[in-house]
What we know:
Layout: E1 2-5, E2 8-12, H1 27-43, H2 50-67, E3 77-78, H3 86-96, E4 99-100, E5 106-107, E6 110-111, H4 118-121, H5 123-137, H6 143-164, H7 169-178, H8 185-202, H9 207-217, H10 233-240, H11 242-246, E7 249-252, H12 299-305, H13 308-315, E8 327-330, H14 340-347, H15 358-364, H16 370-381, H17 387-390, H18 411-417, H19 419-427, H20 442-450, H21 461-483, H22 491-510, E9 527-536, E10 539-547, E11 553-561, H23 566-583, E12 588-593, H24 596-603, H25 615-625, E13 630-635, H26 642-654, E14 658-659
Helix pairs in contact: 1-2, 2-3, 5-6, 5-7, 6-8, 8-10, 8-14, 12-13, 16-21, 18-19, 21-22, 23-25
Amino acid sequence: MGLLLNGTVQGVISPSCGLRQGDPLSPDLFIIAADVLSRLLMTKNEAASVKEANNFLKCFDEYCAWSGQAVNYQKSTVYFTQGVPSNKAKEIMNILGMKRMQNDSIYLGLPLFRSFKRSKDLNFLVDKVMKRVKSWKTRLLSKAGRACLIQSVGSSLATYVAASDVIPKTIARKVDKELTDFWKIETINSAFILKWGWKALTDKESVWGTIIQNKYLNHRNFFDVEINSRDSSFWKSILKSRSLLLNHVCRKIGNGKETSIWFDLWVPSANRSPTPLLDATHGVAWVNQFITEDDCWDEEMIKNWFNRADTKAILNIQLPQDDVKDDWLWMGEPSGLFSIKSACRFVKGENSATSVNPKWKMIWNSKVHPRLKLIWWQMERNAFPTRGKLSCVMELNSICCPVGGEETETFFHLMWKCTYAKALWFNSSLGLRVELVDAHDWEQWKNWFLEDTNRPPNITFLEIMVIALCVMEAMWKERNSVVHGQSKNSIWQVLSNINRKIREQLHVVSNAVEDFCAWSPPPASWLCCNCDVSCDDEGMVVATVVRDDQGRIVTIKTERNHLTDPLIGEVVAVCMAAKLMIDKKVAHVVFQSDNIETVKAFSNATDRDCNFKLVNLRSRFQQLCKGFQNWEVGHVPRRCNFMAHNIAKWARENSVTGIILCSDLTAEVLSDYVEWNKHAG
C-alpha cells in the first residue's frame, strides 16, 4: 500500500498482519472487498421500503459469504431521512436487526450531525483533552516530559478535527488553555482551513475537487467567488482564508497561456506582479507572448516591457520543455508545495522561516538532547524560578543564593558567579576561570564565546553550549536539593556526573560524517565534471572542468547567461556539463557541485524534495542523462572545488566563454584548494 503524505506518495507499506488481532484478512484485501460491498449496496439503493431492507440484508449475506467476514448487527445503526413514517422505520429496523442512529452519533472523532450550536457539538473535544491532561497532572513528570506529552499526545487529540472542520474560537481557546499554550489549536485549525483553500485552488481532478468545482465554483476564479449566505460554514471559512492565501501564492509558469501579466501574481520574487512599462494598447496580455517558439524567454521583449529588477526576476524563471499548463506555487516552501508548517507561520504573522529569531532556531535545530534544549530555552527566556525572580511576585524570607549564600539569587549569578559554580566550571573539561570572561549577563556571555579567539582551539560554540548546559543542569539540581532541605553532594561526585554527561552529549553532537577534504579522481574509464558559477550585476558565468581517472584535464568550458540567481546558476552549470558530455559521446560520468541544494535536486525522487526553481532544470538534466550508460551526481566541499570556481571567475572577469585551453590559464586558476584572486596574479 502506498503512503500518501501531503498529497505525495512517500513510501510503501507491506501489511504483515490483519486488521484486528486474530484476523488473517490483509488490509489491502479488505479495501478491495469493501469496495465490492459498496457497489452491491449502490445497485440496491432505491427507496426506504421493506423490500429494499430485505435486499440490503441479501447484499450483506453475499458479501459475508464471499469475504468470510461477519456483520455485527448489534453495533450497527440505521439512519432514516425525513419523510419515512415511524411505523415503517420500526419494521425496517426489526428486519435489519439494527438500532436507530442517534443525533449525537460520532464517526472517526467527528459528529455526524450538526445542531445550531456548533460549540456544543465540539465540546467533546475539550472533555477529551481535559481527561488526558488530568491524568498527566497525577504523574511527577519533568518539564521536558510534559512538553513531549503535550506535543506528541495532546496535539494529536484535535488534529483530525482541526483538519476537517472549523473549530469555534471558544472551543479552540479552551483546548489551548488546557494544553498550556504549547500547541495552538486555533492556529492549527486556521492552517488546515488554508490547506483546503489551497486544495480548492489547485485540485481539479480529485473527487473533492470535482464536487467543489461543480457545487461552488462553476469554473470561476476561486479568488473572485463571493460568499453566499446559503453556503456551508466550512466553505465560508475557506473563502474567508483567501486573503491570507493570496499573500503567499504565485503562478507557476508552464506554457504561459492562462496567466495574465496585468492581473495575476506570476513572478516568484518580492514583486510578484510587476507593472509593465507599456500599456495594454500594444496587444500584449498573456505571459506566453513573452515566450519564443523554442520555449525560451524573449529577453529583448521582456527588457522593453519591464524595469531592470523585474526583468532579472522574470529571466530567472525556468520554463518547462513540454507544453504544460500554468499552475500555482506556494511561496512558503522551497518546493512550492503547500505544507501545514509554513501555513502555521503565516497564520501567526511570520512571513517566512527566516523571520524566526535566529536564537530560537539555533536552540531547536541543534543536535543537543531535548532535556538540555529546554534548559537552554529557559535560560534565554529567564524562566527559572530563582529567589530573585520569585521575590517580585511574592514575599520570601531570603533572596540570597541558597548555595553560596552571597548575592541575590539570579540565574546568571547561580550558574556563573556563585563560588560553587566557579568550582564546577574550573574543574570541568573546559577548565574555565570565570574571572577571565568579560560577561555580566547571558547575552554578553554568549557573544564572548561566539568569538573564535575566546574559545579553546578546535572547540565550536555548540560544544561550549553543551558543556555549559550540563553544568547548568547539575547546578540547578544541587540548588534544589539545598532549597528543599537535602544535603549538598560532594563537589567531586557532581563533577564526575557532569563530565560523564559532557562526554555523552559531545559524542552525539560531534558524531557527524565529515566530507572528504581532497578531490579524488573518478573510477577507471569514467570522467568527472566539476561545476561552479561566478556572478555579477549583469548575470553569471557557469563553468565546468572535465578530468579523467588520472586527474588530467580533458576539457574546460564556460558559458555566460543573464541569470542572477546563484542557485539556478549552479544547476545550469551541471546541465551544461551534461550537454558537453553528450556531445563528446561519453558513456560514464560523475558530476560534482559544491552546492548541496543542486545535488539534492538531482538525487530526490519527488518534486516535494526539490526547490521549485530547479524542477524544470532537473527534468532537462534527467533527459540528457538518458544518453549515458552510467552517471552520478555528488557533493564536493567548496574547499575542494576551487578549480571550477576559479575558472568561472577568471572567465567572467576576462569575458572569455566557450572551450578554454589549459595553456590560457595560470597554475593559480587551476588550483583545487586555493581561490584565485585577479590582483594576486
